Amino acid sequence: DRQTLVAVLQFLRRSNLRESEEILRREARLLGDDLGGSVATVGTSSPGVAAVAAVPPGKGETRGGFGIGPPSRGYVLHSAPCLRVSSPSSKITHSADLMGGAVVVEDQPDVSAVLSAYNQQGDPTLYEEYYSGLKHFIECSLDCHRAELSQLFYPLFVHMYLELVYNQHESEAKSFFERFHGDQECYYQDDLRVLSSLTKKEHMRGNETMLDFRTSKFVLRISRDSYQLLKRHLQEKQNNQIWNIVQEHLYIDIFDGMPRSKQQIDAMVGSLAGEAKREANKAKVFFGLLKEPEFDVPLDDEDEEGENEEGKPKKKKPKKDNVGSKSKKQDPNAPPQNRIPLPELKDSDKLDKVMNMKEAARRVRLGPECLPSICFYTFLNAYQGLTAVDITDDSSMIVGGFADSTVRVWSVTPKKLRSVKTAADLSLIDKESDDVLERIMDEKTASELKILYGHSGPVYGTSFSPDRNYLLSCSEDGTVRLWSLQTFTCLVGYKGHNYPVWDTQFSPYGYYFVSGGHDRVARLWATDHYQPLRIFAGHLADVTCTRFHPNSNYIATGSADRTIRLWDVLNGNCVRIFTGHKGPIHSLAFSPNGRFLATGATDGRVLLWDIGHGLMVGELKGHTDTIYALRFSRDGEILASGSMDNTVRLWDAVKAFEDLETDDFTTATGHINLPENSQDLLLGTYMTKSTPVVHLHFTRRNLLLAAGAYSSQ
Amino acid sequence: MEAAKMASPKSAPKDAQVMAQILKDMGITEYEPRVINQMLEFAYRYVTTILEDAKIYSSHAKKSSVDADDVRLAIQCRTDQSFTSPPPRDFLLEIARQKNQTPLPLIKPYSGPRLPPDRYCLTAPNYRLKSLQKKVSSTAGRITVPRLSVGAVSSRPSTPTLGTPSAQTVSVSAKVGAPVSLAGQRFTVQIPSSQPAGKSATPTTPTVQNVLINPSLIGPKNILITTNMVPPGAADPNPLKRKHEDDDDYDAL
Q1: Quick check: is A85 in a domain?
Q2: Where is this region: Disordered (chain B) (predicted)?
Q3: Are residues B116 and A530, on separate chains, in Cβ contact within 8 Å?
Q4: Which residues of A touch B172 (CB under 8 A)?
Q5: How many structural domains is chain A composed of?
Q6: How far apart are the C-alpha atoms of B137 and B145, rounded to whole Å?
Q7: In Å, what is the CA distance from A89 to each residue of A84, A93, A244?
Q8: Is the ipTM of this complex over 0.90?
Q9: For an interface test with B, which of A437, A487, A535 has the most B Cβ atoms less than 10 Å from its Cβ?
Q10: Could you tell me if A554 and A565 are in contact, meaning their C-beta atoms sit under 8 angstroms apart?
Q11: Closest CB to B99 among A454, A486, A532
């Protein structure tokens, strides 16, 4: 019915029935209280009613469309078809796109909310003058404000350019681009290059990222003083047009306090959507870990030492730990145990956990004085075809996904890979014997390497299940395949993304897995549902990296739009948005205690985030090329990063996360002064001969395994 | 990656130079030399496809020559057909909203390997045995069920993961479908109750063997499996014609 209202208003306007339209608009204002929903556009086009487009000069607000809802609140209206308005001087464009342009919604406290049509603001030939006027003003402003106001340049430039292209003013667009593209910040150069190739309206049609950028509001965080300065300038008579454009495309999140310095701003900007609004990072996140079930350590020890006398007191110690954790109260930051349904613990899982605890007891304590040894697995003769690597948690198997669409599994230990016997042979074995799990394996099929065929495109992501029974692989053919590691055959192909899937990962408890791809969404699946359970939509560009939080309640996705989002598995909401990277994100790692997230991107920086507060807490500079691998050590003391620059670097995580400033000001505004301590935190740089590092894995005893494909040159 | 080898201006044809310049403008500095050839080939193929389409459209509109509108139409049709783009943002947000409203399903404990229903899995056999002209065997009352091979698609004949070559039939009273990774109880089998000769598959398919199953061992739960295999001897005009339904049941995977 909302859509019919829109359609009726459009019809009335088209038929020049102004009064009826006003009456309907006034009455409609009484309806529609909370219109949530996605961004869409409403526009009208009519030959002859070009007066609608003309913004009355002198007024600082646009009144091209209709306002619905009480003032001083912002809304977004969803409607499918839209038509465009053009000013009398230019051609009438009559395009009916399905996605349409953007709706202007203001949430600023001192501007009344008005929904206005995405009409063309002013004369296209004057865009250059508007922009240079604003540029002059900002460059003449006070130093303390200049850094903040300079944030306006890039989004305004892109939006004005896209609008010129969209309205088919090709020559004006070209000259506008030529004149001003050199002024933009260096980290936007890749975007500008893409923009330079978009010269016609038809070029924009296939580029979903640019379309999304056009329809979403670029978020800027500016202090109140700078904002007042800007507003006063733009509301002057001659700057009317650019004020309209600012209102239309930018969302200015105002904070009270000191204006930020260029350094602070540079740390946080860079994404396609601007920065994150402060409210976007305010939701409560349960970053604590789930309680591990306690069970007795078995009394029969298979210890290599085999010291029986000392065995007894040794056994008592683990039991004491269990008792200790029982008396601990429920961690307030941990999610309730049954917040999301998790699979039950099978006997084999319990055995695995016991092994894990035993190995944990023999784990090396890492630190600045005790660095891990690194064991590098080099894939030879891959001819740049190695696209994904994963290692099981107990470090027994390693899988490689290749550009020739094969998935190859190797055994890291001397124990070979075997598949299960045939049905006929299985009926012959003695099912009651103790080693039945050994007897079901067919010795004739033992080999060190198993090749899995099935995909029809390069395999971009692989993931072992925690119980080592299954393997996932995702590929450019748009499917995610589940393979059985007991028969080494493909069990299921999950179809949902119809476009390349860039990454996939099993949940730390198994059963769920997440995948992210070119269609800009991440999907949560369960192995026994052929359709996804959750769809996480919100990124402006491809989702390149997906990771589960250790408590399996949250999923982090890194994207080519240079943001990282944290999603809640329970209801699919985006609970955190982290901006700051200047290139697509390719690696994510959660710290073992669940509180922190480390991210690496093509800009060669590793950024550290505090999930609870939603703040950036560290920046590790050192790598010179894309970081494809990040991993925390088993107890979170060391962060290892591997990159295309053929090095593995170790960073001191304990020092990076101590002494965090989390006073009220920083949590309210999200500003942090990042210390330039990358050099102090760097514990070591280890170079490979000529092998980019694709994967890192800490064994249960804190030995670091790394993997990469040798590339001769 | 090998260093960019720009063809020397003397020897490279003009369009190769143009392509190299385009790559440079788009910021690509390191590429193998074959990339230029690939790009040129793609450009040629794309342009000829569009122009051919445009010619068809212009002749359909009874125009004397191809003009810009025809080309525009041709480009648009090809874009919608071959170079589809992902769905727009509001559509994605809408379906995400709908999908995220349903609560997460509860997990039934101890339900074996958790896989989707069989029609969504790739675990059914995707081949049929060629039937031989067989005499009707005298083993009336015995039932032959072709053995379910898991993942025969992806395993190479040289390394059979399942099944051993055998020239003669093995008459085994075995339970149905026992590989560990399959949830045997979920499978449904249509039992061909004809009694084909006990001969096994032809020697050309050594990896499969037929299994004779004692019907008394099969409980009602385990029997309901559709197989795609035609039991040998179905070519016989045997009186029990039920199995011929198997042919129609063949599910193209």
Answers
A1: no
A2: 229-253
A3: yes
A4: 424, 427
A5: 1
A6: 15
A7: 15, 12, 18
A8: no
A9: A487
A10: no
A11: A532
**Nearest C-alpha neighbor of B97 from the set A538, A124, A359, A454:** A538
Closest by Cβ to A211, choosing from B25, B83, B88: B88
What is the pLDDT, as a whole number, of residue A663?
A: 59
Which residues on chain A are in Cβ contact (under 8 Å) with B148? 423
What's residue A128's pLDDT? 87
A373–chain B nearest CA distance, Å: 29
State whether residue A345 sits within 8 Å of chain B by CB: no
Instruction: List the single residue in B with minimal CA-CA distance to A422.
Output: B162
CB–CB contacts below 8 A, A to B = 198
Q: What share of chain A is helix, strand, coil (3-state, %, to 5)?
A: 30, 25, 45
- CB contact under 8 Å between A423 and B177, yes or no, is yes
Question: Which pLDDT does position A30 carry in this prediction?
Answer: 66
Tokens of B22: 């385009």
Mutation to test the A interface, candidates B91, B108, B161, most A Cβ within 10 Å: B161
> For residue A105, what pLDDT is reported?
32
* Cα distances (angstroms) measured from residue A226 to each of A232, A233, A252, B176: 10, 11, 11, 76
Q: pLDDT tens for residues A575-593?
A: 999 999 999 999 999 999 9
| Strand-pair category, A615-621 with A605-610 | antiparallel
Contact B105 A341 (CB under 8 A): yes
Contacts of A492 in chain B (CB under 8 A): 115-116, 120-122
Q: Is A264 part of any domain?
A: yes
Nearest CA among B71, B211, B236 for reference residue B137: B236
Of B79, B95, B161, the CB nearest to A487: B161
Nearest CA in chain A to B171: A424
What are chain B's domains? 14-99 (1.10.20.10)
pLDDT of residue A296: 63
Confidence at residue B207, expressed as pLDDT on a 0 to 100 scale: 42
Residues of the domain holding A194: 122-275
Q: In this complex, which of B104, B113, B180 lies closest to A533 when CB atoms are compared? A: B104
Q: Which pLDDT score is estimated for A57?
A: 37
A243 found inside a domain: yes
Q: Does B157 touch chain A (CB under 8 A)?
A: no
State pLDDT tens for residues A127-144.
888 888 888 888 898 888
Instruction: For residue A226, give the amino acid letter.
Output: S
Q: Which residues of chain A have pLDDT under 50?
A: 33-119, 299-327
- The pLDDT score that the predictor gives to residue A89 is 33
Q: Is B147 on the interface with A (CB under 8 A)?
A: yes
Positions of chain B with pLDDT lower than 70, given as ranges: 1-10, 134-253
Distance of CA B102 to the CA centre of its chain: 31
Triad A353, A354, A360: Cα angle to 5°: 85
Taking CA–CA distances from A690, the nearest residue in chain B reads B1
Burial code (b: 16+ CB inside 10 Å, e: under 16) for A679-710 equals eebbbeebebeebbbbbbbbbbebbbbbbbbb
pLDDT at residue number A670: 61
CATH number, domain with residue A198: 1.25.40.500
- In the sheet with A585-590, reading across from the earlier edge strand, the strands are A585-590, A596-601, A605-610, A615-621
pLDDT for A534 equals 96
What's the half-sphere exposure (Cβ side, CA atoms, 13 Å) at A73? Answer: 12
